[in-house]
Amino acid sequence: MSHPRRSRTPMDFDRQKLLQSLGSARAALIEAHRGMKPKSGLARSADAVVSEIDEFALVLTGSRDFFHLKAHGTPQARDDTV
Residue 69 falls within a domain, yes or no? Predict the structure, then answer.
């Protein structure tokens, strides 16, 4: 017997909460990665999960580097004529 399909929209969840959780998981993986042997299977697995989190962020936000630190920009020029 089949179950009726749910009629949820694709974005029927708290997007911000999900992104915060993914960001925390990503940060924890990066921190743990620092103590791993660089070419170990564990380090490669951690890298793969971080990469998948970045890919999921791309789908949710349109930005693959959503979790990356943003560079400081040049401040806007002041208009002293006023």
Answer: no
- Of 33, 26, 27, 31, whose CA–CA distance to 56 is shortest? 26
* 67 in Cβ contact with 57 (< 8 Å): yes
pLDDT tens-digit profile of 7-50? 666 668 899 999 999 999 999 999 999 999 999 999 999 999 99
In a domain, 10, yes or no: no
Largest CA distance in the chain: 75
The backbone region for 62, taken as left when phi is positive above 0, alpha when psi lies in -120 to 50, beta otherwise, is: left
Question: How far are the Cα atoms of 9, 10, 29, 62, 66 from residue 4, in angstroms, in the given order?
Answer: 15, 17, 38, 32, 36
Q: Could you tell me the two tokens for 22?
A: 């993914």
